[in-house]
Amino acid sequence: MPSMLVIATTAVPDHLRGALSRWTTEVVAGIFVGSVSARVRDELWEAVTQVVGDGAAVLVHPAPTEQGYSIRTAGSRRRVPEDFDGIALMRMMGASPSPLEVNSSQSPP
């Protein structure tokens, strides 16, 4: 039985956007919405995780949880889903320091 999904992408290859648009509608740049079976959803997500590269992607789809949906992420991202007593919340990760900042913070030998 088909169910709705939303995939949000940032800085992904154009061919991935093309592949996603075969099954979904790109309603705003990088935001794909569609109604597909669980099998197609999982295969689309597998394709996303394989080619996301330095970009980022988030999948939201219906699931039998308290919130009624599940969140999956791939690629480099600052927001990471965390389970808190059955509720999915997004944890903000700190920005990684630049190589210059890492080298300047080290003490001399």
How would you describe this structure to a colleague?
With 109 residues, the protein is of the alpha+beta class. The protein has one domain (3-105): Alpha-Beta Plaits. It has helices spanning 14-21, 38-51, 99-105; strands at 3-10, 25-28, 31-36, 56-62, 69-75, 79-84, 87-92. The strands form 2 sheets. A 5-stranded antiparallel sheet has the order 2-3-1-4-5, covered by helices on one side. A hairpin with a 2-residue loop joins strand 2 (25-28) and strand 3. The longest helix is centred in the middle third of the chain and has 14 residues, at 38-51. Mean pLDDT is 86; it is low at 101-109.
Short précis:
With 109 residues, the chain is α+β, with helices and mostly antiparallel strands.
Written as H for each helix and E for each strand, in order along the chain, the element string is EHEEHEEEEH
Approximate strand percentage: 35-45%
Q: List the strand order in the largest sheet.
A: 2-3-1-4-5
* Morphology call: globular
- Supply the number of helical segments: 3
Question: In percent, how helical is the residue content?
Answer: 25-40%
* The first-level CATH class name: Alpha Beta
What is the radius of gyration computed over CA atoms, rounded to a whole number of angstroms? Answer: 17 Å
Chain-wise SSE layout:
Blueprint: E1 3-10, H1 14-21, E2 25-28, E3 31-36, H2 38-51, E4 56-62, E5 69-75, E6 79-84, E7 87-92, H3 99-105
Antiparallel strand pairs: 1-3, 1-4, 2-3, 4-5, 6-7
